[in-house]
Amino acid sequence: MLNRILPLSLVAALALAVGAAAAARATAAADKDADNTHSGIVVSVADGSLTMTDKDGKNEHKHTVAKDAAITCDGKDCKLEDLKKGFNIVVTTKQGDQTVAVKIEAKSPDKNDK
Length: 114
Hints:
Blueprint: H1 2-35, E1 37-46, E2 49-53, E3 61-73, E4 76-77, E5 88-94, E6 97-107
C-alpha cells in the first residue's frame, strides 16, 4: 500500500506546484494589463488618433491608435471611425508607451444602461 501512496503523493504535489505557478503567471499578466488599461469617454476621432476624457469627463488626452488595434463597438468588431463622441470606452495602451492604443472597447451611449 505504501508503494501506491508515495507515488500518488508525489504526483499530487507536482500538480499543485504546476497549478500554483500557472495561477501566479495569470495574475501577473492581469496586473500588467491593468497598468496599461483605462476607461473614459470619446471626445473625437481623427487621422488615426483618439481624443478622450476620463470617466468623469475631465483630463482630456490623446492616443495614437495602432494600425492593428483591436476595436469593438458594443461587442462587435468596428473601425476607429465608428467611434462617436460620448461612447464609453476602455483603452489598452502599448506596454511601455501609454500614448499608443492597441485595443479599444466601446459602448454606445444607448447601450450603457443595459
